[in-house]
Amino acid sequence: MRTLTACLMLCVACARALAAGLENDIALWVGRAKSGETLLEHRADAPMNPASTMKLVTAFAALDTLGPDYRWQSSLRSDAPLAGGVLQGDLWWVGEGDPAFDLAALDALLDGLRLRGIRTVSGGLLLDRAAFGRVASADGFERDAGRVFAVAPDTHLVGHKVAWLHFYNDGAGARAALEPALGGVTLTQSLTDAGDVGTDCDDVRRFVRISSEGEALSVSGALPRACDGASRFVNLLSAPAFAAQAFAARWARLGGQGAVFGGERPAPAGARMLAGHASPPLSQVLVSTNFHSNNTMARAVYLTLGRVLPQGAGLVADAEAALRASLARHGVDARTLVLENGAGLSRRERVSARALGQLLSAAWRAPFAAEFVASVPAAGRDGTLEKRLGAWGPRLRLKTGTLASVSALAGYWLAPDGEPLAVVAIANGEGASAARIDAAVDAALRRVHAAP
């Protein structure tokens, strides 16, 4: 047990550490989650770029508006007759922007078609993309367009339109294979066998060069035997083209025929559902979104707010209106809030530390509190927080936010004595870094609560 003198010395040291970290480029708010009472603040009303801590705002509004059990639906529909295993007309794939839709989901959708007895589609495959009329922007990230974190949401986004290159060197020659097999993509490979060069192949790109442009993909280099079975993802095509080609490949693998891609067109009003697939519940989608700070998934959730609650102003404007209405219902002051896409992949988005703290407090008291808190990563254990602030243990749950010149943390300290605290720390400027914002949170928690 610490002596009184030791405790006083610790408090003085913590106060000094906190003061040293809280300069004019940092905003901080710490309060009681149950009551919203402020315990510590610094520049708490300054509008700050929150980076990916903005995902907490979108998650809050989604749980409040859609409900934790909300699921996105994908379906295959047609108004054509079915006879002898042949669908005698066009097939529509209707997408709702399922953030978790992947190849397994596509297979499940196609299995439903097969179970109905359909083996051939005499008409074309048409994509109904009406659910998302327009996608919210992410201005300033155009140079990152080929990066997975910058992939825009889409009604028919399959696995974030990521394909995998699998490399083999097993004595039958060095080679690569693409999964899923995309019929429109030409894979050119010039790989040689580098033999037994070392035993480490942590990143196959040390030995091969991968490049893509449009539907052309090429790999070249000398592949060591140690890289047999190595894989690397590549981002290919537009979302509709990737979806159509993935559909064709998986349908052919099931022995299906026809359904040649015929473009995009809304399904006719009388089209009946032939097969359907439901996403995981929203609560589970948000765990994946926030643990791994997935921009694409967060942006899809944001747009879904506008699709489910249309107000006639357009999808993006309706999404913002729905989000702001949710905050207003819970008494969150949104005057500093500036939205672009709801994911924090933005140079324009802003929110104050106090407003974000109010939201965290409101979430703690909300009917969906358990689902919201479960979506926030635990220190030293989960996702983007796996290697940060581990000394505090999993009782500290924080969403990270990182951009150039931005570092942020927001979430909860679930104290052993049962007193939950809401914590927000945001740094904007050239000095912003994960280490610096971690130190600010550590010092703030030590000042208002016993150290772990």
From TrEMBL:
Matching SUPFAM superfamilies: beta-lactamase/transpeptidase-like
Record keywords: Carboxypeptidase, Hydrolase, Protease, Signal
Signal sequence extent: 1-19
Keyword hit for Iron: no
Top-level EC class as recorded in UniProt: hydrolase
UniProt-listed Enzyme Commission number(s): 3.4.16.4
A GO term for molecular function: serine-type D-Ala-D-Ala carboxypeptidase activity
Family per similarity comment: Belongs to the peptidase S13 family.
Name of the protein: D-alanyl-D-alanine carboxypeptidase/D-alanyl-D-alanine-endopeptidase
The species this protein was found in: Crenobacter caeni
Phylogenetic placement of the source organism: Bacteria, Pseudomonadati, Pseudomonadota, Betaproteobacteria, Neisseriales
